[in-house]
Design brief:
- The chain has seven helices and six strands.
- It is an alpha/beta fold.
- Strand 2, helix 2 and strand 3 form a beta-alpha-beta unit.
- The radius of gyration is 17 Å and the shape is globular.
């Protein structure tokens, strides 16, 4: 049996001109996770990451916390969907940047609706693949792990969409449940899948063992 650790990236820059950059807090979250892994004596036999900047910066923070340089396999199928394109497909009007609480709520209401429409095929967001192709990008990474790393410990650094898609694939959840899993994922959360060459099974979901201390609870974020 092998163990696959799916890690969501640290807090990015929601509302900024470039979301695809970790905030200072996102960097600290990533380093703390690496420190936690090191304290547990955890070592990874293989590392896979999406190719977005927030994935690579999160991986860099984990490596700093663990104290290892290491190589990784880049896997573009683990990249996140374009949330702005998903929303534009159902709401073409210009939206306010989600810098206020109400704007953020509106953003996520529309994102839920847009994801549902993309998943059921009633919309095709500009510049994005059809949903089945997005799913294949994620499941092909899972297949690669099962085929090549049996009995080993593997780290995958990615985003909420691919992680919820992986969990939905393993559990056979309907689209609505997969969307809710996606929107509940916290930054640098850890989801564990046990695997053998034939199957995967969910071990833990969306945990933050490195943020359990009372003085760190204010550093828990979702975007």
């Amino acid at each position: 049996m092998g163990m696959l650790y799916l890690v969501r990236h640290g807090q990015a820059s929601l509302g900024a001109d470039d979301y695809d950059q970790l905030s200072d807090l996102g960097v600290r979250q990533s380093v703390r996770l690496g420190e936690y892994f090191a304290a547990q004596g955890l070592r990874f036999d293989a590392v896979i990451a999406g190719t977005l900047q927030r994935h690579l910066q999160t991986l860099d923070g984990i490596r700093r916390g663990m104290g290892f340089p290491g190589e990784h396999l880049a896997w573009s199928g683990l990249n996140e969907y374009d949330s702005e394109a998903v929303i534009r497909a159902i709401h073409p009007a210009q939206l306010e940047r989600p810098t206020s609480a109400e704007a953020a709520r509106q953003h996520f209401r529309l994102l839920r609706q847009g994801l549902a429409a993309w998943i059921d095929g009633t919309t095709q967001p500009e510049g994005m693949p059809p949903y089945p192709q997005f799913v294949h990008g994620v499941t092909s990474a899972l297949d690669h792990v099962r085929a090549n790393h049996f009995g080993k410990t593997v780290l995958v650094v990615t985003s909420g969409g691919p992680i919820s898609t992986a969990v939905g694939h393993v559990l056979g959840t309907p689209a609505a449940a997969t969307i809710e899993l996606n929107l509940r994922l916290r930054n640098t959360s850890v989801t564990e899948l046990a695997f053998n060459p034939k199957r995967l099974s969910l071990h833990t979901f969306n945990t933050l063992p490195h943020m359990d201390a009372p003085d760190l609870r204010g550093d828990v974020t979702y975007a």
